[in-house]
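Quick one: co-fold with phosphoenolpyruvate.
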Amino acid sequence: MRVKKGIPVSPGISIANAMIIGEEDLRVRRRFVPPSRVDDEVRRFDRAIRAAIEDISEEISRFGEELKIPVQVLESHRDMICDPTLRRGIVDRIRTEGNSAEYAVTVVLRDYYERFASIESEYIAERVHDLEEVEKKILRNLLGRTEAKGERIRGTAVIIAHNLSPAQTASIDKEKIQGFAIDVGGRTSHTAIIARAMQIPAVVGLEDISQEVAEAELVIVDGYTGKVIIDPDPATLEVYQKKAYHSAEFFRHLHEEVRWPAETLDGYEIYLAANIEFPEEVETALDWGARGVGLYRTEFLYEDGEPDEKKHFEAYCMAVAALKQRVLVIRTLDAGADKFHSESVGTHEPNPFLGCRSIRLCLLREDLFRSQIRAVLRVSALGPVKLMLPMVSSLDEIRRARAIIRDVRAELESEGVEMAERVPVGIMVEVPSIALMSEQVAREVDFFSIGTNDLVQYCLAVDRVNERVAHLYQPAHPAILRLLKYVIEAGHNAGIQVSICGEMCSEPMYTVLLLGLGLRSFSVSPISLPTVKRILRQLTMSGAIDVASQCLACDEAEESQAILQKRVRNLLPDFF
Ligand code: PEP
Ligand code: MG
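Sure, here it is.
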């Protein structure tokens, strides 16, 4: 038995034989063409580009229509292939150096990889994988190869791979694939996003699992903890078989409860919304019982460079249409650090988490901000939307952002554009300085949404993505609990809505605490909706307030954690 630990990106337990999807051998020899054949070679390259675009279009329709999963990754590959700078570089190489088309493709793309390799960023690492996909797609067409897909699966299987292309992921049979265990990637890699959308357990970032597992070996994927167990011993297998059974049963029962109201035993109604990253996720969120979207992270719109107003507008329209008059909270660009980078963010900042990111970048690059605000205000004519500003650390930032929003509204009015009369503007409370200013700030914004992912990071000075300090990342730390209480009370005293959208509220353990601290509005990852609701429905307000005051009286995170764990085990016995 061997155990590997990676990043859990899609919950659930799967136990099945390994099916290894290997790397394709698309090695290219150094080959030259005589000057008389250069034009033919350029034509051959253009044919391969057209064929690759057709391949992607086919995949997009299969992804979107049949599998109903996000197609942005594929669209970004198509955009990369259509990029005139890339084509120019390759054609120049064929014409000036006499390289064969395939050799020119590899040389030009190697140059891109080298440039990207010098940049330390999860986002850029993911884009390198995308570029590798693009290279493979063009080379396959030049070399007359077809892509290996998942057709050879007999029975059920866990997919083991170094990385999966979107086409490989799309070609899998949802009934047969039980799980994913992948060497590379993080929470935003395409396998992670697709696995979540398909509700298949997945662990990524396992480094070398594809080298460690033999074809057909028995594998357990634990999408809750990130553990992957290869060739489990009988005792471990038995434990996980029970866990897998309970987990499947648990989700089946939960699904039956999705239309039940989210209210406590003593009749307090709680607003449960979902966090999304793509408009296509709205459907899954509604399917799991969301009453709206409490956080739409718009960073993915910037993946292929700065989006124009049209791109923003189309994405927001899609989400608004799917929500059918339920509320959509659109968060403005939250770039930098662990998220999307651009040249303007300054990828070489010495301390990117504290750098020119999010609202800071938007205030610096007003053009970038204005095109997003224009699209949000325009879409407000079609359905209820709210605007949310991330990473604010001072009142001055809020005032400046609101002045721009007012100015954009005036501009649209002068153009005769239809908009909702009022689009509420709120902030993410995720920087300690603004949390401590909650009383003053609450007078100037329409709502708070507490972003505990960053609030914990900035308050405890613990990098949220560094596994070496992960043990210090404690949402139940007494300082965090005091801060939460203060923010919630300040917001309520000022009469504004206080919501929470950090991962803390997706974790069943914290539901009772957050309710007891005064929260009545939660925005959680879609798959966590029914679990959080199941807990809420078993609580009374007075009981939750009692648990929260016990936790507030604790001196250490471990003590509160013990109280909360005990409580949640009683509330969700079939989950543990
Ligand atoms: C947060 O910081 O809690 C949050 C919800 O935003 P993100 O995870 O996108 O930073
Ligand atoms: Mg945040």
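If it helps, The radius of gyration is 25 Å.
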